Amino acid sequence: MLTLRAGLALLTALLGVHVTGTLTATAAAAAADLPTLLATLKRHGFAVVQQQPPGGTAYGLFDADRKLLMIAPITHDLGIARHVLLHEAVHAAQSCPDGRMRLIGWSLSTSPAVASRIRYLITNHYQQGDQTLEQEAFLIQSQTNAEALIVKALNQRC
Description:
By secondary structure, the chain is mainly α. It has one domain (4-157). It contains eight helices and three strands. The protein has helices at 4-15, 25-31, 33-43, 74-78, 81-94, 112-125, 131-141, 146-157, and strands spanning 47-50, 60-63, 68-71. A three-stranded mixed β-sheet has the order 1-3-2, covered by helices on one side. The two termini are 20 Å apart. 30% of the residues are buried.
């Protein structure tokens, strides 16, 4: 579990606070929803920790058996911590209600550029059996209202 200090550091990094103390437009829009997402994950028994996932190469990992979302500390420096959290939170929702990974099944779309990048990542970095779950996670995390969608999925499925 996150300590209060580590939780504040994670939340600060996820919200996109810069040295000047201002938020980017995207981060400002998401800022109100991230605390709700984190609280919803916790309410449904999930834990979010800042630690390097086993193997040392992944930015994030969801462990369904332990209901644990791992976010690598380096993601903060890379500016992708929020995206990694969203991605792993989709997997948390996919694991409900019984720990077995299943598609949420929403029909969503994204821009052609994002869809192309998702196809590249799926094809080159994931095993065939995991590709549909990963594709859905990338698609949901790419939505402007991703936090709200994931909270809805967690509340409906868990």
